[in-house]
Amino acid sequence: MVKRSVEDWVRFFESTLLLIGTALFLSGIFFLVAFNWSFLDRFVKLGLVGFLILLSYAVTIIFRKKPIYFEIGLTLIFFLTGTEILVFGQIYQTGADVYDLFLGWAALTLLLIPVSRSGVVTGLWMVLSATTVFLYSKQVEGNGSFILFSITSLIFGGTGIVFDWFKTDRFSTKTKSFLSVLGLLLSLGFLNLVNVNLFRNHKEIDSGHSYLFYQILLPLVFYGVFYSYYRWFRFRLMNLSFILLFGLSQVILKSADIFQIWAYSSGVSFLQFGLFITGYTIWAVSHLQNLRKPIPIEEGKP
């Protein structure tokens, strides 16, 4: 067990209290404005949020050599930019779809990514862009946006591998691992959305080849590439755990199709379905336990 020095504890408490103080300060501003929101003029509303954005920029520039203050300023800019767009849409009732708000938010905060060094803004922007794609699919393309979800899954999966593979001094090792896991989660999430939508609407698919491609070939390729990479090239136990966890949903969907689990299926079908899921779960847990075991070192070798 590593013992921390007094200086380490002081830095820890300074960072923690700073984050708590920032959160309380933002909460106070939020509730103060929310309580008096209906009494404020529209220009006051826009000007108030704009002033906070300028103040955040000033804090970021002044404390650019202090990482904690710098990242807090960038995070404030990120959220306040979205707030400004939301306030503008609420005042003038532009009639735009919700995904337009998130798309504008993502576009205006894109340049914060190369500036940030902690990965917080990068992770938030990845989640924001994923939300934009999801809302666009629901409001414009409906449940049949298989191509869009597949491309998005490919982009996020590649982004996660890039963060894990490339060596750079901008992000620490822990930050790159976090962004790699986040990219993997978003990638597998969109891939599962493809399969869930196909499972609901598979009778409406015009071509059986399209169904086999999205439901069979695409998951096999994606999961095979991710598993091979994080198993043999860059061993990441957490990433492998998420791959096997999301693989459980794939197994559930595939076995439901194989054993024809519908509302009036027979008891035998449900029994086979349950045994299939149980077998995969037992294998996945035992496989992860074997991966966690340390490799024994032979005598005479360092």
Automatic annotation (TrEMBL):
Q: Which residues form the DUF2157 domain?
A: 15-120
Is Glycoprotein there in the keyword field?
Answer: no
- Organism of derivation: Leptospira vanthielii serovar Holland str. Waz Holland = ATCC 700522
- Enumerate the transmembrane spans: 12-37, 43-63, 70-92, 98-115, 146-166, 178-199, 211-230, 237-255, 261-283
Q: Which InterPro entries did the record assign? A: DUF2157 (IPR018677)
Q: Which Pfam families match?
A: DUF2157 (PF09925)
Can you name this protein?
A: Membrane protein, PF09925 family
What keywords is this UniProt entry annotated with? Membrane, Transmembrane, Transmembrane helix
Coiled-coil stretches are none
